[in-house]
Amino acid sequence: MTDDSGHRTGTVNGAGSGRNGERDNLILNKLKSGKLKLYELEKELEPMDAIRVRREYIEQETGTKTENIGIFSINIERVVKRNCENMIGTVQVPLGVAGPIAIKGGYAQGNFWLPLATTEGALVASVNRGCSAITKAGGADVRVLHDGMTRAPVFAADSVVHAAEVCNWVATHQDELRLAAESTTSHGKLINVVTFVAGTSVFVRLEFDTKDAMGMNMVTIASAKVADLVAQETGARLIALSGNMCTDKKPAAINAIMGRGRSTVAGVALSHELIAQVFKTDAKTIHEVNYRKNLVGSARAGAMGFNAHAANVVAAMFIACGQDAAHAIDGSTCITTVDLTDTGIYVAVTLPSLPVGTVGGGTGVDTQQECLRILGVAGGGEPPGTNARKLAEIIASGVLAGELSLLGALASQHLARAHQKLGRG
Fold it and tell me: What is d(CA 28, CA 289) in angstroms, rounded to the nearest whole number?
């Protein structure tokens, strides 16, 4: 079956008929007997048929009908090779849009509609209100402060003296490390190397410019080449290609301090009149909510992020735009600040770690590709890297909108009322 764009769809849930039905039954029997593994189906069948038969097998094993999982519009020829193993269908997430939001960035300039994939009632409405306030204020100021994706192999030294020698060797052979790393990629550039020691463990944190790719695959392959060279020249034993000093998909102070991905800041000045009009409160109250909740409350809790709900917007835009959803944890390290001014307040969000890309990974999935097109960032930028930085600036602006709206709702005591109206089901 095909959709309007000519893509094959997965709307056929039952087994094939005739000769294909006999083939399917033979394969299902092989799966049940263990003669064939689920992950081997693509060797026996075309991708669409493999997905259908695998889904039918899971239905029989679990006694569960999967009629909705089996309906999708994406072109799975690419997906089964690059994005998902043992595929049985898709899970659909409602997609809303907020905006337009006016952005005055180094890369993102103009008015944008923000695609937000979420099942949390009130989130899109809240971001939409923040977008309205930002646009009425003249737009969000946004800049990418730093750009670099990291990987940090860990080595075992023989002693602390040997550990120090390994660090010294790395520091004095940067050019050789760079040549080794860049021999694996035509796009990535090694831009920084920092070492850390804990006893006899040596961590070499490598940082790369990955252009428009988020770049984890790129930096992992390049880091393997570097790690081999370090081990060969220093005698240190490579223990793991990732030693968690990267730090990848975990809350970590090192990312908040040194940055990872696209480190981005966004801010907007709001007047007293605009605050009263949009948020039904005043500048001093919003300032105090941010101080006591986002700063003091987060510090007292030992949180690594000092914000209201930045990860909410990051996750919704990541899912919509084909980013690695696990990296939404990086968005939670955001710091939200509110400065009192003579005319009102200046609200800013600082996101030290936004690992985003516009090529590779999930960005090529049809529905996510359409969301990137809505934002004008699909594919590689010219010059390379500009689209990924533009996307980071747009996401940071969305986070700013979400923070503004929630601070306003808290300051006006409207949070519970909004959730009662929009978030109950």
Answer: 59
E strand or H helix at 397, and its extent? Answer: helix 386-411
Q: At what angle do helices 123-136 and 386-411 cross, to 10 degrees?
A: 100
> Mind listing the pLDDT tens digit for each residue in 14-42?
555 566 888 999 999 999 999 999 999 99
In 87-120, which positions are buried (b, 16+ CB within 10 angstroms) versus exposed (e)? bbbbeeeebbbbbbbbbbbebbeeebebbbbbeb
Catalytic annotation, pick one of 42, 44, 120, 233? 120
Question: In sequence order, what DSSP letters do the residues of 244-297 get, joined into one string?
Answer: SSS--SS--HHHHHH-EEEEEEEEEEEEHHHIIIIISS-HHHHHHHIIIIIIII
Q: Reply yes or no on whether 339 is catalytic.
A: no
Type of residue numbered 177: L
For residue 73, count other CB atoms closer than 10 A to its CB: 18
Choosing from 44, 282, 324, 339, the catalytic residue is 324
DSSP state of 150: E
Collapsed DSSP state (helix, strand, coil) of residue 163: helix
CATH no. for 95-147+261-422: 3.90.770.10
> 330 and 311 in contact (C-beta within 8 Å)?
no
Reported as a single tens digit per residue, the pLDDT across 35-61 is: 999 999 999 999 999 999 999 999 999
Active site residue 61: no
Domain boundaries, the chain: 19-82, 95-147+261-422, 153-240
Which candidate, 412, 347, 401, 413, places its Cα nearest to that of 112? 401
120 is catalytic: yes
Alpha-carbon distances, residue 216 vs 161, 252, 340, 383 (angstroms):
32, 17, 40, 21
Apex CA 192: angle with CA 187 and CA 196, to 5°?
A: 135
The HSE-up count of residue 282 (CA atoms within 13 Å, CB side) is 3
CB contact at 8 A, 397 and 101: yes
**E strand map for 256-399:** 260-271, 335-340, 344-351, 353-354
Q: What is the pTM of this model?
A: 0.93
Q: How far apart are CA 423 and CA 416, in angstroms?
A: 10
Q: Are 394 and 108 in contact (CB under 8 A)?
A: yes
- The CATH fold of domain 153-240: Alpha-Beta Plaits (3.30.70)
